[in-house]
Hints:
Layout: H1 14-30, H2 34-41, H3 55-68, H4 73-81, H5 93-101, H6 107-114, H7 116-120, H8 143-154, H9 167-188
Helix pairs in contact: 1-9, 3-4, 4-9, 5-6, 6-8
Bound molecules: fe (ii) ion (2 copies).
Amino acid sequence: xxxxxxxxxxxxxxxxxEIAVRQGRQRYIADAGVAALNLLKSQKDEPSxxxxxxxxxxxLSAATKALRNGEDEEYVVAVLLHDLAQDLDPMRHDRVxxxxxxxxxxxxxxxxxxxxxxxxxxxxxxxxxDTKACEKFRxxxxxxxxxxxxxxxxxxxxxxxxxxxxxATFEPMVRRVFxxxxxxxxxxxx
Length: 190
Ligand SMILES: [Fe+2]
Ligand SMILES: [Fe+2]
């Protein structure tokens, strides 16, 4: 990799900019999705807060079930990464994950990730929160899509004996889903 001599933006020559921008774009495309995967992997050995699986295992279990059920690749990726922001902001981790993944997901999958917490509440039999809170969204075009996700792949994926494929199984999928959009973004800038 070429390195420029400048140590500030103001000192960088036109050639420096050409080198740094070109190499940056190539790397962003080559490594698309890796930052999201790394965030998920950072949860690998974290405590489970009393559940029988931790958040990382829950995520792998959910993605494995989605894959086995024949869901499409982008949906499997959305399932895998739906809780990647759990530790950043537990009470609004869906919004944070949704913001991170918005450019890379279809609208229905983005909305599903970004709003899953309020739908997940509907499956709780014990809660001080309003378990019917998702009703405010009834009629929304992605209501049923999100409810189905929470039922099939979120509330029901905390079993330590459920199949969990290795993260390596999903890495190429994440790279493809993020890479498609990254490629388009990087080549659309002047
Ligand atoms: Fe969640
Ligand atoms: Fe979850």
